[in-house]
Design brief:
Shape: globular
Strand content: 15-25%
Structural class: alpha/beta
Number of helices: 13
Distance between the termini: 53 Å
Largest sheet: 11 strands, mixed
Length: 502
């Protein structure tokens, strides 16, 4: 594989020299999107997995059976420095808005089913922008961005169709959670005639959307997979692919990832049969790192879901498409943050992302299609006034202030010992201690965050604190309303339904 390193200190004329040296004169006119094989706007499929950690995919861990995803990585660009937030609702909000969650009031926890709030209605979502560019827009899978009012739901936020569930987790077969049923086809409650695993259902529906797509207009699919979020449920055939994994919980989790891989295989088959694969761009990423308590794994990265450590925020990711003008396979180490996908996808679709003035995302389309250095030199992991914690990346340095999270250890994959879960819980309780300190790491040379440099580079700490303080002034009050009893499914014919808030 070719290795492209993200050079964080390149600026001004020196970056211009790098660009000109990398591209021939005949390439320069192609900088203006869209970039497709046949001159048409590319179809775009944006896949977000759920709680899949660094060590939970086949291209990082040979024990995990992901042949379809591996094939895309091996003919695409793997993104080794792809960052998200540490929790699902904030990452989904950042993906669809290009805005840091602390500016949206979504920096503290996830959206709860009984609380009257959602992704703010005064921001324009990615599907709304794409629809203006002529795209048919479809969402499949997990929403988790609010549903107390219909205005918060997908078909009111730019998606032509929605096939999935509103809440944060559910039974993979029964589609129930906390005493209520949660499965919709557009606005209507959907009850499948046959009992089928949800990951399989979502993959087949995505394939159907492709088969039924009316061309020549372009297609956008946002596939927010349920896998591999709790509960640990998977058909036996997927678990059997991992007989080499002796720990049962870990084996089930690996099977859930394999089921997601099969869903991606369904999509690729549909694209080829529909002769759409040569003009389709596929992006894959996870919403946050894995939680070891749920049998996922981020080894060798430190920490996990809900922490500011790399294990909670740095996720497996890649981009694939025939319109990428790089020799593949390629590993790109340049920084890309989840907020960047909003303007980058707009650029790939032929839009004008520079018109989006109030977003935090940076256009990374040239980085991705030409293999150029990343345009990003820094990003905010999160700022949370309730917990007092915050973290900033600046070049090779990462600054953490306050408690980075309760699970702050390096945890290898679970072994066959029966007491593994007990030990993990003990570790989780142990690390509920308060850090309340300032930590500095060089995450380019020390990816596992083992060597605190805060006393070695006090000038760097001071500079990064100044930058973080400027961002703190942009933080809005976190939404944390009280629960509403009227939201309970017993008031809505046993389903989780909109209609109980203004």
């Amino acid at each position: 594989m070719r290795l492209i390193s993200g050079v964080w200190h390149l600026r001004g004329w020196f970056r211009l020299i790098v660009v000109v040296a990398t591209l021939s004169a005949g390439d320069l006119h192609r900088w203006n999107p869209p970039m497709s094989v046949n001159g048409q706007k590319p179809n775009i499929i944006l896949i977000m997995a759920d709680d899949v950690g660094w060590n939970d995919v086949g291209w990082h861990n040979r024990d995990i059976a992901t042949p379809n995803l591996n094939a895309l990585v091996e003919s695409g660009v793997e993104l080794r420095s792809s960052y998200v937030t540490s929790l699902c609702s904030p990452s989904r909000a950042a993906l669809l808005t290009g805005i840091y969650p602390f500016k949206l009031g979504l920096q503290h926890g996830v959206l709860k089913a009984t609380k009257p709030h959602g992704l703010p209605l005064n921001v324009t979502l990615l599907p709304e922008r794409l629809r203006r560019l002529g795209y048919a827009t479809h969402m499949i899978g997990k929403w988790h961005l609010g549903f107390c009012n219909w205005a918060y739901t997908p078909t009111y936020r730019g998606f032509d169709t929605f096939f999935g569930f509103y809440t944060g987790q559910q039974d993979y077969f029964r589609h129930t959670t906390d005493g209520g049923y949660d499965f919709r086809y557009n606005k209507k409650v959907f009850r499948p005639k046959t009992k089928r695993y949800s990951t399989t259902t979502f993959g087949k529906h995505a394939a159907d959307v492709i088969y039924n797509h009316k061309r020549p207009g372009p297609l956008f699919i946002y596939l927010a997979l349920q896998a591999a979020h709790a509960p640990l449920q998977v058909p036996q055939k997927f678990e059997d692919l991992h007989r080499n994994i002796t720990n049962q919980r870990r084996r089930k989790f690996a099977g859930m990832v394999a089921a997601a891989d099969e869903a991606v295989g369904e999509i690729m088959t549909a694209l080829r049969k529909s002769n759409m694969h040569k003009n389709t761009l596929i992006v894959f990423l996870s919403d946050n790192g894995a939680t070891p308590l749920g049998a996922g794994n981020n080894w060798p990265l430190r920490g996990g879901k809900s922490t500011l450590w790399e294990g909670g925020t740095r996720v497996p990711s890649f981009i694939w498409g025939k319109m990428l003008k790089v020799r593949t396979p390629m590993i790109h180490r340049g920084m890309i943050h989840v907020v960047d996908w909003y303007p980058t996808v707009i650029a790939a679709a032929g839009g004008k992302p520079e018109a989006e003035r109030d977003i935090d995302g940076i256009v990374q389309w040239d980085m991705l299609r030409f293999g150029l250095p990343s345009n990003r030199t820094q990003f905010v992991y999160n700022i949370n006034r309730i917990t007092g914690s915050a973290a900033l990346r600046m070049g090779k340095f990462k600054l953490i202030e306050g408690n980075p999270g309760f699970n702050s250890d390096w945890i290898p994959p679970a072994s066959e010992k029966d007491d593994d879960l007990k030990l993990l819980k003990q570790n989780f309780r142990f690390h509920r201690r308060s850090f309340n300190q300032t930590l500095l790491y060089n995450v380019e040379d020390d990816e596992i965050e083992s060597n605190d440099l805060s006393h070695t580079y006090p000038d760097v700490v001071a500079r990064m604190r100044q930058i973080l303080e400027a961002y703190r002034r942009q933080e809005v009050e976190p939404f944390n309303p009280k629960k509403v009893r009227k939201a309970l499914p017993k008031f809505w014919d046993g389903t989780w339904s909109p209609g109980w808030c203004r």
